[in-house]
Amino acid sequence: MKKVILSLVAILSISTSIIAQENSNNTDYKKWQVRLRGVGVIPNESANIGIIGGGVDISTTFIPELDFTYFFTKNIAAELILGTSKHNVKTTGSNLTAVGLPPSVDVDLGSVMLLPPTLTAQYHFFPSQDAFAKPYVGAGINYTIFYNVKSSGVVNGVEYKNKASFALQAGSDFNLNDDIFINVDIKYLFLKTDVTVDASNLVGGNTLDIPAEVKINPLLIGVGVGYRF
Fold first, then answer.
1. Could you tell me the pTM of the whole model?
2. H or E segment to which residue 14 belongs
3. Does residue 21 lie within any of the structural domains?
4. Which residues form the domain of 75?
5. Coil, strand, or helix at residue 31?
6. Residue 64 is assigned to a structural domain of this protein
7. CA distance 137 to 140
8. Is residue 90 a contact partner of residue 56, using CB atoms and an 8 Å limit?
9. Tens of pLDDT along 21-68?
10. How deeply is 86 buried, as exposed, middle or buried, from its count of CB atoms within 10 A (0-12, 13-18, 19+)?
11. Which residues pair with 16 in a beta bridge?
């Protein structure tokens, strides 16, 4: 949590510094935008799994996402992204010879839902008031909450640790008129978590906790419609 707070302070400080350089008398822009996007969440996963080894496979999913953007100037903005995704998870090529199974097995770990609110500071390029395309870039902080974990029954359960991460962003708004626009957006989250698998059922009820360091690093590709006011 301390890292999250420090990162938010840094983002706000950078934004304030840039804003101070903008023309404060410029008011030819609308301060709020709201977007509804459909987003493909594509994990770029890898793992370091203790005891049984192997890799990890995390399913790709498609979700609705809502975001709000506030413009401090016509170029500088902050965006809050809200959405939640569900993923199926399994290990790949794990060695289970210790419990009488083959040396390369995929272990179904069930599913988990992710709630990753993300705040980014953005720079919006402003070619002209009447420009059709208005691209932007951004960077910020994400805090992912893992919840509604459901075991497949192969293992007793799985625990995920909530984590903060950094986010990068690029996209563009395509104006249909002064208020309504189409949006295309790409984000990359540098997200990793600590996972503990309770596999005691595989050893006759004796304690067997399998630790893992998992990098999820999802690529989020979104397309949607927005309204500015």
1. 0.85
2. helix 2-20
3. no
4. 2-16+35-228
5. coil
6. yes
7. 11
8. yes
9. 444 445 677 999 999 999 999 999 999 999 999 999 999 999 999 999
10. middle
11. none
